[in-house]
Amino acid sequence: MLKFAPYVLKSLWRHRTRTALTVCGAAIALVVFTFIGALQDGLAGLTRGPETERTLIVFQANRFCPSTSRLPEDYAGIISKLDGVRDITPVKVFMNNCRASLDVIVFNGLPAEKLRTARDLTLIAGDWGEFERHRDAAVVGQAVARRRGLSVGQRFSVGEVTVTVVGIFTAAEPAEENFLYTHLEFLQRTRGLNSVGTVTQFEVRLKEGADAQSICRNIDLAFRNGPIVTDTRPKGVFQSRAVGDLAELINVARFVGYVCVAMVLALVATAAVMAVQDRVRETAVLQTLGFSGPLIFRLVLAESLIVSLAGGLLGVGVALAALAGSGLTVGTEGVMVTIAPSVQLGITGLWVTMAVGVLAGFVPGLQASRSSIVASLRNV
Question: CA dihedral in degrees (296, 297, 298, 299; nearest 10)?
Answer without folding.
Answer: 50
